[in-house]
Amino acid sequence: MSLDPQELEDLTSKIGRKPSSTELQIVAAEWSEHCSYKSSKKHLKILPMDGPLVISEKGYDSGVLDVGDGYVVTAHIESHNHPSAVEPYGGAATGVGGVVRDILSAGTRPIAIFDGLRFGDIEKDRHARWLFKNAVSGIADYGNCLGIPTIGGEVEFDKCYTNYALVDVASVGFGKKENLVKNHANKGDLVVLLGGFTGRDGIGGSQFASDSLESEDRSAVQIPDPFIEKLIIEAILEARNQNLINAMKDLGGGGLSCAVSETADALSIGIEMDVDKVHTRESGMHPDEIMVSESQERMLLITNKTKLKKLQEICKKFRITCSVIGYVTSDSMMHVKKGKKTLANLPTDVVANANLLDRPSKKPAYLETIQKEKKLKPIPDYSKMMMKFLSSPNIASKIWVYGQYDHEVGIRTVVKPGNDASVLRLDNGKFLSVKIDGNPKQCYINPREGAIGCFEEACRNVVCTGAKPIGMLDHLQFGNPENPEIFWTFLESLQGLTDFAKFFKIPCVGGKVSLYNETPSGPIKPTPLVGVLGLIDEKPQMPQQIMNDDILVIIGNTKDEMGGSEYFEYIHKFIGGKCPVVDFAESKKNMNAVLSIIQKGLLKNVHDCSKGGLAVAISELCMINDIGCDVLLEKVPGEELDVDHVLFSETHSRYLLVLKQDNLKKLNAFLKKNKVSFNQIGKFDGRQIRFNKNSKNIIDLRVDKAQKTWINSLRELVVHG
Amino acid sequence: MKIGVVVFPGSNCDRDMYHVLTDVFHLDAQYYWHEKGLPKNIDAVILPGGFSYGDRLRAGVIAAHSPIIKDVRKLAERGIPILGVCNGFQILVEAGLLPGVLLKNTSLNFMCEWTELVVENNQTPFTNQFKIGQKIPIPIANGEGRYYVDESTLEKLKKNNQIVFRYAKTVNGSSYNIAGVCNEDYNVVGMMPHPERAAESQINPVDNKPSSLIFKSLLNTIGVKN
After folding, report:
1. CATH: 3.40.50.300, 3.30.70.120, 3.90.650.10, 3.90.930.60. Which one for A364-387+543-721?
2. Ranges of chain B with pLDDT below 50
3. Contact flag B54-A145 (C-beta cutoff 8 Å)
């Protein structure tokens, strides 16, 4: 928990003297990788951040998008990987708390939570099962208590997360544009710490998260209290409505050190504060502990003397504590005192801006051979294999997870979890569709194309609801950046996301970088995660019950892109092969075509084709709608492929459309006119899911049996496994 | 005509309930903070769902000792319609205004899912527009939603017609599949499922009409003056 020798030298030369112990603690927290982004910041600039709907303000912890009629949507994503790997319940819960406060900081009400969870092989690894189960409980207990619906996300298991956990949480907020907090401060304004008591939890959490996970440092894990957070949300929103907040920032990594220095730096002010004024959970805390504690449910506010009394009244109503800990100065210094004694007096720009690094990068050796396919054992019985596939943890229904999340509270959830993307109604009559996606298996094989694939998949998911993508969140999770090979994969993924964002003009409205995701057994696979927000002006594509004789159409070519597929990795235990590559032009054409057809109201159902390929996507439609289907694989557009490749390739830019026979003519005409690659590949009927190729039956499943295994297997595994 | 929506620290369905009362059914509703009193001339009181006091100790038990509960009790005695939904139901039970207790679901998990209710008593202020046996598609969202009463109380409830709603099939292990009950005078009703989440077609994937009848029943009871 200290600076390295070079950083210590830099600090000493910048301030012209030897730093005090408190100064060292403050700077070590703020200059940690977690808070300073020192490895990544130089590179992140390539992402496009601007767009017609983006509202930028200084000091915001979340991205802001104008959704019209005087309303805004805010969004942010965070991870809580290290803490969750040690203490999954508290780690995951406080992950929710942190990102929700980022949304609150802009003055908007959090209206939805999304979680992306990744663990080791839960079929074989009991520890992974324990981590998974408790992380889900942590998210459920925290989000449910706040009354913010958790409406989407993803869960994935891969050996690379053994003894580790990736817990990513995104949140979306909504509010009136005029109510956004316009961060500003004047000399003499008061600095107020509001909410939970500062205690000895989460000490050094940001440094803990800036190193590989080798020991279980429990004191670095924060303790969750969703009830306090709920009170803070209501108190802050009431204070915002009365215009009592000049500036606001949540306390996250680095605690007070970071919140104070970053606020001062962003607003070009100085702050003088007294640690004795901070309300603490226990007496006798050392000032350094107070400055770096990451105790949860705390907000830093800047207000003035006339507004303070009203703010105190609101806090009294909600019985939460607020302490005036200092005031704004004009000298751009962060001055920390204990009573009359000065503990730290540092220029805010020095604290808030670590020296950025230019880390070396090198293409990993394994990538030279990874795309080669090897001869795999033939599958004797695809029906049997398919049943095993449907029960596998990555393919099985995640209802055991989202069934524990209150996904209805707030009464905005129009399209519920369990579909491609959930949809929320907004107060201006529009709808917001959000999805987060990652794909470490593909990113491992090709970090650039894999990252692009995640982005396209998230876009496809919101497009399936009829939404046009308007913004993205990225969360870049990698191992130790000091390893040039790992740093190379980071740069590649970032470049991929940038290329796609620029081509589709989707601005990056928020993001996060999480490095040092590794344990003594090695680094995680590159795991960039992409969240896409989509806006629907009129009405969303509501999933409708599929009936006998409804038609199944596929848009997009199926290609020989088996690398990183669930089929290769789960069934054949083979890591390698050609990673799916998104063709930008085709992607755009297909996306626009699907959006237009949805607007014409021709469709009953639109489903993305991704993990597990065509076979899984079609089976999902059948299982959800409790109906059989006859699929003709020879009709699937694309080059001639082996039957298992047609069934399980995870080629991007593909959509499954379900429609009534009556609408087929119109659909054909539209797609032909727009030169979209498509074909009618099946018809719904009966109680069997059948895949045939040239009159030969390949797969034949009973719908009810498939349903049972797909819906129950994850719960069985967690509860009884 | 005025309906009070009681807000406790940690209530989180208060705004949803308020929206449905005012924007959907055009009723005159007002929030009442738990430390404030309720006016004597109020026409109905609703205790919404949420996690009052973070469910500490036991769901609803701390809120049941809030100052406002004294007024709720007085209004209940006067026959004013009172509805507790989810945590509101737990509070009414803890306050002794309704019989039984709510225990952890048999799954031991929080459960959020759509289910189906069957109307058993159509003589309460919240069910008088239903037919007996009518089905209501509606979501539940709770961790402690398993209604429990002992055998003799159950017999008493049956005899007095105090069982208002039952689940159409077993959901969480509740005694006799009970989802909602009322007091002996029928004016105080508690239910675990959320009618405010099911009364609009946009968010109800099945049919919003049955849940709407809960609010229309109230409208019918207290009379519409606007």
Report:
1. 3.90.650.10
2. 225-226
3. yes
